[in-house]
């Protein structure tokens, strides 16, 4: 069974939107001033360990616009690995991408049951809400940044639904970013 790992940059008030230079939020790029070599090393290691990406449509489109023109170990891995996209829109097979079938829950269950290594989900707020509500996440990695943004997209389900996790690790990076690694309780 493949592990489904969600890795998110998140503010103190639960916002995951526009951590880079995406134009969708008035505070876009809110993670940039908190970067550190050890944090970048962690993200590289996390990406190199993953076998594939699972992305929502907006994150896929942002990654497709950003990564194919870049090089280096991180970009090379991002460009080479398989990408499954939760969308009914066209995806670029030249970028190793394919659209998931519906119903989405069944497609993701098939991905997890198939052969291979970890499936990494980055960004993709709407998809992550769905994954959490359907209890499809095996591991949740929250990189909490010491900033309040006052609103924006989040990843937590809106329904009054309880989902329990075990805290399995914490790391505090230079400049105050805290990584919490949590495993879904069965």
Q: Key terms for this structure?
A:
186 residues, alpha/beta, Dihydrofolate Reductase, subunit A, 8-stranded mixed beta sheet, 5 helices, 25% strand
Describe the structure.
By secondary structure, the protein is α/β, with parallel strands linked by helices. It has one domain: Dihydrofolate Reductase, subunit A. It has five helices and eight strands. It has helices spanning 37-49, 57-66, 73-80, 104-113, 125-133, and strands at residues 4-11, 52-56, 82-86, 97-99, 119-122, 139-145, 165-172, 178-184. The model has no long low-confidence stretch (mean pLDDT 95).
Topology at a glance:
Elements: E1 4-11, H1 37-49, E2 52-56, H2 57-66, H3 73-80, E3 82-86, E4 97-99, H4 104-113, E5 119-122, H5 125-133, E6 139-145, E7 165-172, E8 178-184
Parallel strand pairs: 1-5, 1-6, 2-3, 2-5, 3-4
Antiparallel strand pairs: 6-8, 7-8
Strand tally, please?
8
> What is the number of independent domains?
1
Q: What is the top-level CATH class?
A: Alpha Beta
**Biggest β-sheet: strands ordered side by side in the sheet:** 4-3-2-5-1-6-8-7
What overall geometry do the principal axes of the alpha carbons give? Answer: globular
Mean pLDDT: 95
Briefly note the CATH topology name. Dihydrofolate Reductase, subunit A
Number of DSSP helical runs: 5
Overall SS class: alpha/beta
Task: Give the structure's gist in a few sentences.
By secondary structure, the protein is α/β, with parallel strands linked by helices. It contains five helices and eight strands.
